Amino acid sequence: MEGAVRCSANYVPLTPISFLERAAVVYGDRASVVHGSTTYSWRETRDRCLRLASALSRLGISRGDVVAALAPNIPAMYELHFGVPMTGAILCTLNTRHDSAMLSVLLKHSEAKVVFVDDQLLEVTQGALKLLSQAKAKPPFLVIISESSGSPPAVPNFAASVNEEYETLLETAPSQFEIKWPVDECDPISLNYTSGTTSRPKGVIYSHRGAYLNAIATVLLNDMTTMPVYLWTVPMFHCNGWCLTWGIAAQGGTNICIRNVSAEVIFENIALHKVTHMGGAPTVLNMIVNAPIAEQKPLPGRVTVMTGAAPPPPQVLYKMEDLGFHVIHSYGLTETYGPGTVCTWKPEWDSLPAEERARLKSRQGLQHLAIEELDVKDPVTLKSVPADGKTMGEVMLRGNAVMNGYYKDLNATNEAMSGGWFRSGDLGVRHADGYVKLKDRSKDIIISGGENISTIEVESVLFGHPAVLETAVVGRPDDYWGETPCAFVKLKEGTHVGAEEIIRFCRARLPHYMAPRTVVFEDLPKTSTGKTQKFVLREKAKAMGSPFKKGPSKL
């Protein structure tokens, strides 16, 4: 239109870095981060993030470089979400449950130049860096995050050419630093790995624009007003804490950081800090409702809990309501910056029976405000399926909170976005009111405690056992973890192996949460072409029910 212009007065690239800049002024003296006896204000958090950015710049980190982090929900992990992008670099948060083999693969694939590691995760990191060294790959510069006083742990020579400690790095860095704002709002801000196989990891690229928009959308779907108190029970390494690492800054909230999640810790922190919001997979909800009476404490007010990864069991929803929690059900993937939908609650549902309310809330709902469209389509014709609650199709999304692509894998990117939609790989139905509900997964992924497990990777390890002839892995329902791996195994003739040995064999070669919890010895059902009929095995595993009825078991 004549007279219209685009210039710096009316266009600035979107980035969640701006949330921190505003919070430091508007909420400067309010608590930003609380961890045990440590409390920082928003003004102090901004200063620490600037020092972190300054330190990284002095280490040679610049625009486009990757900086990795392996740490639980502690203040340093929160600060990295701002300090790293302030340099123009890309933050790669790594799953704290990974073993050394997986970490080495991801560090090599990401080409991280610096890695920040919590001192309690140093041993597994040393193993990863040793593997990198053996592969003739240059290891990243290692910075230890130590919350105890005294010298940082000693690091073998192979681990990194120089060893630094996080607080020392910040103390010696100047606070005057010129933020490297994104040139283009579609520039990458973070790299998040899906739980794929070690041979083909998928690094999901998030942009400044997508992170900004999804952070705001997630704040809105959580009904967050200004100055919320957020308890960090969602790992910050998972989709950047469902984008709430940035979202809490937007609202000038208080981040309550906890290193380990347990029902007792959750109730204690809710009571102590008057927590208003938290999140977690159904695993966390199950932990709360099954907490011993002695550990439970009355809620100081309404506590909103966002859950996802798998539909929460109705009985868990009943108990959460009885305890005073307000549960919001969302759905998404790493490729959609975490939450992409919300099962928006309608007041007219309040009067329905508890069972019907739970059924409605267990649906995945509709797209949130940063996703343009959610649909269930025929994956071949791309035609929408009827909204009859019965006809299955693939759940697809499109909008501004869909990833830029997979790092170093253009073919996978094009495949995932063919036809102009992001293909989730999940199968679902659409109901008459437009709400979507998942029915199955087109990929045989097991979701255990909110983490994805590749059955192909588990099967490849099982096939390495000298007594295993055939095997197939499916998910078995678990009241605590949601699902756990169940291996169906056919042994070679003349061999005799027990389930415990199979489990030990896998645990020696996989992270424990990926190893089978159940082993069934029998012939595998096959199609006429010789393919294993996994749907038959899934039904068998489902019929077994949960192996644990009274709480968690170690993974």
Task: Please explain how this structure is put together.
Residues 457-531 form the AMP-binding enzyme C-terminal domain. Residues 20-407 form the AMP-dependent synthetase/ligase domain. This is 4-coumarate--CoA ligase. Mean pLDDT is 90; it is low at 155-162. The protein has 555 residues and is α/β, with parallel strands linked by helices. The protein is globular. The strands form six sheets. Strands 2-1-11-10-12-13-14-15-16 form a nine-stranded mixed sheet, sandwiched between helices. It has a five-stranded parallel sheet with strand order 4-3-5-6-7. A four-stranded antiparallel sheet has the order 17-18-20-21, with no helix packed on it. Helix 2 packs across helix 3, helix 4 (100-110) packs across helix 5 and helix 12 packs across helix 13. Helix 5 (122-134) links the parallel strand 5 (114-118) and strand 6. Helices cover 30% and strands 25% of the residues.
